[in-house]
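Fill in residues.
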């Protein structure tokens, strides 16, 4: 690393490991996904570790595979605002980030909900703006498939534009609160918005919240999604977590900022990552192998294969070779899951070639191809790797996805955070009170922000 480049602070966030196949619900150490105690445990652990924020994903409809509900979805997913507002009362500094869809919600309602969370938490709210990708989810709202992909991002952009106008709509001196004169507030100006999606005339119901604008996150990877993120978001939640893919994505996103008049540091890149620790590298590898087999059980392996093949493969042995039949081209076998593979035949061909070359069974192949960024090693090794990714611009930090609920982060906070602190890459105390402070972001209503360099000690 060049000596002229200042050391970057590592940003860390905690993903509540809800509905996905990273979560090992079958492990005896796994507890409820719904009890408030589970949320409190993970949030308090993240705060003890001085993390930037706690993160909730969102799924609006139980996914179906071959007409059946996914086992993973049955673990449940309580309402995001209810959970985050409750957590605001039992944490003090931790940011509280909620994934909320812009396709099926109204901007006035969203602006009110996030401003409320920002008020109640003293400036710790974040909104991960997602658009959702399928008509199946839309059926929940009797609007199945009514928006094309690009229109979803137009609606998302207009939703954020309206929300920002509402958050900005109370002038700074609106609240008078003069008991003697009997004047509470000056007149609140009306916000007018006439756009392609919304035609709104509103007086907003709340004064500016502590952050002015709650932090905006974005997750979505198409060109439209990346443009929306570059124009709008304070941070991106991404799957590009490996060193090479991370660096390419990082450079691409930062390169898009200038045309929106934004500076390099105004957008943080935060890939998802899992981790497995051990007292020795060999022990960590062994644990990681065991966990991957828990995450991809025999039925899960077949289900993943069926998603690509588009047909029932239940007659195949998960420990045997890949099917010799061709994919059917039916991509609707699984409904409600974000689809990243566009061409099933090409994927099937590539998987077959890999399985043959490396002599892999169905389950072994699925374990390999569904692996996401994973840090495996001793606490010192994991800290070193995370730091390397951040210092070499593959990321600004990570949203950690533990495989166990709710205790999966405990070991990381107890053993890896001190290593990162020792390297001088991670804070030893919170320097500010708001999530914008933690992320080193500007406060839109001119509140002074804490600078990057001042935060890592
Ligand atoms: C890393 C990542 C995480 C996502 N998390 C969610 C989520 O929790 N809930 C959701 O409804 N959509 C989620 N999405 C879906 C996106 O918001 C978006 O609707 C979808 O990826 C289609 O847009 P795209 O083509 O731009 O990727 C996620 C996407 C990515 C890439």
């Amino acid at each position: 690393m060049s000596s002229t480049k200042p050391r970057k602070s590592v940003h860390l966030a905690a993903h509540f490991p809800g509905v996905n196949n990273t979560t090992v619900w079958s492990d005896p150490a796994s507890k409820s996904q719904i009890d408030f105690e589970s949320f409190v445990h993970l949030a308090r652990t993240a705060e003890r570790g001085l993390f930037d924020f706690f993160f909730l994903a969102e799924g609006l409809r139980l996914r179906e595979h071959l007409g059946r509900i996914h086992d993973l979805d049955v673990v449940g997913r309580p309402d995001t605002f209810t959970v985050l507002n409750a957590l605001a009362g039992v944490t003090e500094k931790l940011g509280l980030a909620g994934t909320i869809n812009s396709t099926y919600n109204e901007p006035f309602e969203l602006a009110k909900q996030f401003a409320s969370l920002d008020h109640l938490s003293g400036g710790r709210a974040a909104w991960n703006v997602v658009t959702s990708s399928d008509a199946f989810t839309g059926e929940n709202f009797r609007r199945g498939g009514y928006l094309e992909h690009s229109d979803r991002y137009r609606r998302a952009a207009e939703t954020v534009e309206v929300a920002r106008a509402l958050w900005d709509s109370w002038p700074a001196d609106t609240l008078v609160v003069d008991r003697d004169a009997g004047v509470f507030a000056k007149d609140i100006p009306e916000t007018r918005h006439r756009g392609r999606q919304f035609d709104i005339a509103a007086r907003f119901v709340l004064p500016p919240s502590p952050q002015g604008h709650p932090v905006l996150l974005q997750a979505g990877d198409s060109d439209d999604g990346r443009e929306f993120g570059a124009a709008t978001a304070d941070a991106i939640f991404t799957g590009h977590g490996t060193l090479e893919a991370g660096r390419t994505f990082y450079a691409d996103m930062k390169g898009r900022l200038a045309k929106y008049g934004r500076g390099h540091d105004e957008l943080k890149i935060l890939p998802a990552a899992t981790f497995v620790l051990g007292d020795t590298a060999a022990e960590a590898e062994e644990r990681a192998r065991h966990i991957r087999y828990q995450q991809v059980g025999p039925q899960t392996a077949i289900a993943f294969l069926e998603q690509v093949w588009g047909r029932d493969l239940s007659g195949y042995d998960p420990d045997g070779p890949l099917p010799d039949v061709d994919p059917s081209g039916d991509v609707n076998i699984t409904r409600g899951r974000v689809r990243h593979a566009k061409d099933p035949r090409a994927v099937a061909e590539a998987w077959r070639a890999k399985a043959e070359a490396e002599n892999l069974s169905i389950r072994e192949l699925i374990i390999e191809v569904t692996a996401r960024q994973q840090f495996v090693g001793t606490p010192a090794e994991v800290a070193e790797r995370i730091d390397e990714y951040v210092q070499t611009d593959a990321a600004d930090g990570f949203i950690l996805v533990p495989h166990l609920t709710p205790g999966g982060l405990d070991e990381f906070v107890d053993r890896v955070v001190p290593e990162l602190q020792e390297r001088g890459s991670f804070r030893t105390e919170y320097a500010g009170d708001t999530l914008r402070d933690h992320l080193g972001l500007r406060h839109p209503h001119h509140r002074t922000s804490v600078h990057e360099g001042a935060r890592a000690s």
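Residues 104 and 134 are 12 Å apart (CA to CA).
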